[in-house]
Amino acid sequence: MGNPVTVTVFRWAGAWGPFKVNIPCGECSLTRDVIEDCIATDLAGIDVELDLRDWLTEWWKPLPKGGWHAPIVLVDGTIISQGRALNRGVLTQAVIEAAATDTPLEGNHIFGKETCPHCVRAKGYLAEAGIANRYYDVVKEPRALYEMLARVKPIIGPKTPVTVPQIWIDGKYVGGADELKEVLGLAEVVPNPDRGQCSLSPGRG
User: Does the reported pTM lie above 0.85?
Assistant: First the structure.
């Protein structure tokens, strides 16, 4: 396992000289609530540490990173939000990207979508080869989309568009359906409308 992902929040509270704030602002409180709920639900299973800090007491710490307006939220030292209540989608994406960067993917995985014929084809290849796998629908599962992007972009490069399916076998990146077929040494897949998926059996059509 990698290191936990640290979410740091500088909230409007604390003291600077004679000036003191004992009750955090409303948006700071909302931000904390969003983070805590997101950790318990959207980010369940990911090791996340929440570090709450008072901005007035430590205002100079986020400044070098561009943070000056509480609530300031950082994920592993990078600012993702400031000056407003946190968008949980922004937090989820940032945490998953950080976790994916630090944690290798193990096992067999397909990231795809329901309307993609190549995804259906890839699932058919694995079924024919008897290889158990975990399938993620990146349209219906935001967490899967963020993880796929975080894992694929460093491999294919930031300017290359990400398509589906994206496949890993035994924790090693394969690519798409054509690359999977080649790796498995399988024959051409022929679509089978009766089953709504692809069949590798010869003569099916």
Answer: no
